[in-house]
UniProtKB/TrEMBL annotation:
Signal peptide: none annotated. InterPro entries: DUF2231_TM, Rieske_2Fe-2S, Rieske_2Fe-2S_sf. It comes from Actinomycetospora cinnamomea. GO terms for molecular function: 2 iron, 2 sulfur cluster binding; metal ion binding; monooxygenase activity; oxidoreductase activity, acting on paired donors, with incorporation or reduction of molecular oxygen. Residues 182-283 form the Rieske domain. It holds the Pfam family Rieske. Keywords: 2Fe-2S, Iron, Iron-sulfur, Membrane, Metal-binding, Transmembrane, Transmembrane helix. It comes from the Bacteria. The keyword Chaperone does not apply. Its cofactor is [2Fe-2S] cluster. This is Nitrite reductase/ring-hydroxylating ferredoxin subunit. Belongs to the bacterial ring-hydroxylating dioxygenase ferredoxin component family. The chain crosses the membrane at residues 77-97, 109-129, 141-162.
Amino acid sequence: MRPFDDIDRLAKTPALDRIAAPLRDTVHKVLKRQDVKDALHGVWMGHPLHPVLAQLTVGSFASAGMLDVLPRTRRPATALIAIGMVSAVPTAAAGWADYADGHEEQQRVGVVHAAANGVMLAGYAASLLARARGRSFKGALWGWAALAVGTVGASLGGHMAYHQAMGANHAEGYPHIGPGDWTDVGAADELEEGEPTRRIVGDVGVLVVRRGRTFHALADRCAHASAPLHEGSIVDGDGRGECVVCPWHGSVFRLDTGSVVHGPATAPQPTFRTRVRDGRLELAVTGYPGVPAS
Ligand code: FES
């Protein structure tokens, strides 16, 4: 049995849903404003915010643990623990926002990840208290204990990101495996006006939407967690052109560029070039999202 197989068992433990589901519902009730959710997901920077902030929190705590080993460095270690505690607030907020839009298996691991981090923060609070009372060695002991628990929490977070693909770009493969050459997908007139439709191009599914003689084509697999976008709805994107709304967690993508209007997705949908030849619609994958087609 490999150590991380046990984490997979956590993901397959429905008993955790008794905690995970109410927590998810509470986050949805608290986080109502779309602009706040988008900010916490990291839509504004095109990358999940939680792992970026976690660098500061984990880095501060780990550095404090090392300084506590060295002579005459307890004061900077204390300052680093204080920085870690303050940065943990936005780090946790961003994490909870992502958690609420995860799937069940991710949320089961997520509650254990959050519990470990909660214990870690309690340990660091005890460490700061001991240091404030002049008991610096006791404070260092609390700090090392908290760091050990935090390492478990961070490992669980890494498992969620790398093994369960939470926060990963699920449409990343399109520019690599979608056909670069023009590929026939059927008669252009067969497509109904404004209807999201799925077409297969080479090995990949594509969402196609017709507007008169204009055809929009995006990767059908949502960048957030692989939902089929052709089952979503087409809406007006607040003055940013027509958009598709993901049927699972409500990410909104522009039809013309694939860019993210609202999260939880932070990566844009890969797009396809379109043309009509002899009444037949042809598609070819564009380069990496945000990079002009050659
Ligand atoms: S799969 Fe979650 S927003 Fe699309």
